[in-house]
Amino acid sequence: MPKSSNRVFTEDELAIAATRSVDALADALATGDRAGALGKVMQSGMLGDAGFRERAEMLMHFTRVHLQPFELQEDDEKLTFLCSVCPSAGRLLQAGRYEGDSADLPVQGPRPLTYDPPELPAYCCHEPVMEKASIRDTGAPLFIVDPSERLGEEPCRT
Question: Which pTM does this prediction carry?
Answer without folding.
Answer: 0.57
